[in-house]
Amino acid sequence: MYIIRSKQTEEVVHVDMRPVSENLKAKDIFPDFDPSLMEFGKYDGEEVPSDFDIDPKGNVLVLEDNNSSQDLRLFPLTEEVMDIVPDNSAKKSEVASFLKDVGVVISDDMTKKEMLEVIDQMKEMK
Hints:
alpha+beta; two-stranded antiparallel ribbon; elongated
């Protein structure tokens, strides 16, 4: 499926259920697409996720629900990833993707600021 949403409000503007294997462009599915106001994302799921971000490559990243009472387990960041740690200028989706890549499960209601605080905690670990 293809999803177009407003950059400002993050509200879904249009959904096209064709498979991503068709490799369509934003204007193919929504002729009024304006890249300065809208985001275009591709998603293999059958329903629009309730909470998601769209990464720079146009992939829809589902923000996982973590309603369990388990403690958040953090690990020290390795030297290899220190150069790619997102900072405050990164989009929320990029920060979420980084945390998932290093094995941190984030809740769907975490703000970008909270995610960056988790990364700061991981940086301080030795």
